[in-house]
Amino acid sequence: MNGESKTNTNNTHKSKASHSKHLPVLVCTLLAAAALTVGAVSRARSGSDTQKAITDGSSSSSLCASQDSSGAKEQEPVTTSATTAAENTQTEIKTRPSHLEAAKPAAVTAAHKTEVKNGITYVDGILIANKTYSLPQSYAPGLDAQAQAAFCNMQQAAAADGIELWICSGYRSYSYQKKLYDNYVIADGKEEADRYSARPGHSEHQTGLAIDVNEPSDEFNDTPAARWLAAHCNEYGFIIRYKPGKESSTGYMAESWHIRYLGDPELCKKIEASGLSLEEYLGITSKYRN
Ligand SMILES: [Zn+2]
């Protein structure tokens, strides 16, 4: 989500459907072009040819086979900068009851703790970037090292099942997201672009904790890889972030390829079992103010 995906399953909109069909090429071309500009397209050193990652140059490509010193700088955990910066700024903590208290399962009946550190919002310790909660322009952690390691483990497990997974897009900077979003607004108008692309500062990819797997388009839906990902990503600490029927809470159309690293497999399984989006689970919104 939040940038490179352009999908539409509504066949009544033929122009959109047609656009969607060509999206993978468009997207990859767009991403690749931007990445090439800053020299950040690379391949796995011992992986398959298709195992590649495209980033915006602020972080190295996130490849399982490249976890060496050359990528160390970019693989700093997101928590490093947040923790360090927190020492110099005030932390705002507030606890509020979930508005879903009466109607939802026990998982969301408890009060949720919201903290804001250096302009970054954490709800129950989970870093949130959506339409309501933005990230500072300066926040540029690169792909989270733990998320990358978890993806690599998942990738190996998938391979053992005959499924190939790779990172199409991981970390994206504020400025790169701005380019993507601005282009989509030009192509589709702001209202439509807001359904599938995040405004700069609102992309979950800027957190370094989100990954688009394989092909960021509806072409990925219902593929063996998509089914494997949906069935197993929880085991590695990821959730499918934007599910069908959840646009009103997440703010985005469904994306079977966009996974979010939460770290704790048990938490992921709990959220999955609840049938709730992350927003619903945490009792938060995802809406732009304007
Ligand atoms: Zn995404």
Write a structural description:
- The structure is a single chain.
- By secondary structure, the protein is of the alpha+beta class.
- The protein has a single domain (14-57, 77-282), classed as Muramoyl-pentapeptide Carboxypeptidase, domain 2 (2-Layer Sandwich).
- The chain is 34% helix and 15% strand.
- It contains ten helices and ten strands.
- The protein has helices at residues 14-21, 23-37, 78-86, 145-160, 174-188, 190-196, 224-232, 247-250, 265-274, 278-282, and strands spanning 41-43, 52-54, 91-96, 112-117, 120-123, 126-128, 167-169, 210-213, 238-242, 255-261.
- The chain has a four-stranded antiparallel sheet with strand order 3-4-5-6.
- A hairpin with a 2-residue loop joins strand 4 and strand 5 (120-123).
- Helix 5 (174-188) crosses helix 6.
- Residues 1-62, 66-92 and 95-108 have low confidence and may be disordered.
- The structure holds zinc ion.
- Zinc ion binds next to strand 8.
Which secondary structure elements does this structure contain, and how are they paired or packed?
Blueprint: H1 14-21, H2 23-37, E1 41-43, E2 52-54, H3 78-86, E3 91-96, E4 112-117, E5 120-123, E6 126-128, H4 145-160, E7 167-169, H5 174-188, H6 190-196, E8 210-213, H7 224-232, E9 238-242, H8 247-250, E10 255-261, H9 265-274, H10 278-282
Antiparallel strand pairs: 1-2, 3-4, 4-5, 5-6, 7-8, 8-10, 9-10
Helix pairs in contact: 5-6
Bound molecules: zinc ion (ZN).
Zinc ion is lined by residues 1-2, 205, 210, 212, 258.
